[in-house]
Amino acid sequence: MAAGRSQKDAALALDCDVTKIYRIESGRTAAKPADVQALGFTYGLDRSHIDDLVSLARGAKLRGWTDGYVDMIPSDLSMLADLETSARSISDYSVEKVPGLLQTDEYARCVIDLAGELPRARRDALLRFRLERRERVFECRDRPRLRFVLHEAALRVELGTHRILADQRTHLLDLADRGVVDLRVWPFSAGLHRWMSGAFTLMEFAGKNEPSIVYTENQVDAHYLEAQQKVSRFSAMFQDMRKRSIPMKEFTS
């Protein structure tokens, strides 16, 4: 603030989303030494001050749980996993596949295999990440409110064998029956809806100064949106789809 720089200026310096800057400033994400150095120059600090801050960053003990997978997963996915564990609520719309948090082990392995030929060790590490990500959300003391809308296509597209999809659907029914998640299905018979641009995840947080965030991704890149006007549109669309979809327990193929 005193340097006359905004969070957008800092994000530009690190070539990242503003969300990352907010997480660093709020103490939810540790700043890497390289990030501290870049921010120091952006804020106009002298070299000795920057070196001191870099040394502190190197000695910092604050680590996100995803740090152990830093060489395995994109930084955008790492941030998503960290955000999920601190969210008050997660609202997710998925199209062709079941979202990661709801996948069975075998279904998750098939999704990983879609990436092409990967060494066995890397595939196993990616699977461990998916399982730990799921566990940290479902097993945490203050579990977020979880609401999912799945397009019927996600329940039809088979991965691997028919049994894997059948087991996945059974798992979804169990989660819904136990009230772990609010799970609904947009059936083919409902036709098109207003949002036809792919999957998205909306996360809301308990803190007054923590903005809600929308996460979208495709095969090329991922984006975090936090402009209130855009987030509100996603929230309204999700509410509309949820009201017009069918509870998983009532859905019949």
UniProtKB/TrEMBL annotation:
Q: Quick one: signal sequence residues? A: none
Pfam families assigned to the protein according to its UniProt record, in alphabetical order: DUF5753 (PF19054), HTH_31 (PF13560)
The DUF5753 domain, residue ranges: 79-248
The name on file for this protein is Helix-turn-helix domain-containing protein
